[in-house]
Known about the structure:
- This is GNAT family N-acetyltransferase.
- By secondary structure, the protein is of the alpha+beta class.
- The protein has 2 domains: about 10-115, Aminopeptidase; about 145-275, Aminopeptidase, CATH 3.40.630.30.
- It is about 40% helix and about 30% strand.
- The chain is built from 9 helices and 12 strands.
- It has a 12-stranded mixed sheet, sandwiched between helices.
- A hairpin with a 2-residue loop joins β8 (about 190-195) and β9 (about 200-210).
- α1 (about 15-25) runs antiparallel to α2 (about 30-40), α4 (about 75-90) runs parallel beside α5 and α8 (about 230-245) crosses α9.
- The longest helix has 16 residues, at about 150-165.
- The protein is globular and about 60 Å long.
- The mean pLDDT is about 95.
Amino acid sequence: MVTTRQGVRLLGPGDVDAFLDLARRDPVANVFAMYRARTTRLEPRWLGGEAWGRFHDGELVAACHVGANLVPIESREEDARAFGERALARGRSVSTIVGPTEAVREFWRTVSDSWGRPRDLRWNQPHLVIDGPPTAAPDPGVRRTMRAELDELYPACVAMYTEEVGVSPEVGGRNDLYRTRVAQLVSRGWSFARFDAGRLVFKAEVACATDDAAQIQGVWVPPDRRGEGLAVAGMAAVVELVRAEIAPRVSLYVNEWNEPARRAYARVGFQETTTFSTIMF
């Protein structure tokens, strides 16, 4: 396949091993990219987009996942600029740019004049990891959710998403798609919750996972139950369950202004390793 003057080309199934070798340089920060490569084999029809690679002397030195989310992988500033130039020629199709701050910032500098005004820019999102037992007592009531509980779980997922992202996942009639996504996480055993008298009072999901790490998303407690320690005990339980049955390291990233969540994660034993940034359209 012909490369561009910047050494960037489309990746495909023949590049999966090289892509995974690249992502393994930081298997926790790159867990999303590794999960997507393993489940799609970098086939555009399964990716719902493309994967790009940047090469130097025939070696893959950086990559970029371009689906609903654009995610730079092991990208230095010059790599992010090269991916940005390719993105300018292609036009914006993504709804989110997310990844390590330096790469996201340089990519955005390259495309910002042409890609339009984003809905939100979140430059400082601490990336947190725990690779041992939680330092808080786990809630014994937290467990995997079941399909029969979807009618209670789904509204909580919509509420969390709307609160976190600022727009409902059901906008534009996408409720069937989002409900299917929630149901898939339940079926996979990646959805965890605590119920009190049938009411959900804590939830969290695994967004993606490999043999090295699992990334948590969707941590939520109903507003009227906040301040009771449900998030601390709930996340401690999720960490125990995930480390025992899914992956040895657990990660997530959090908005810098969300002090209650950051305090809760610190009490569970999460440690900051790097900084992510997210740009949303």
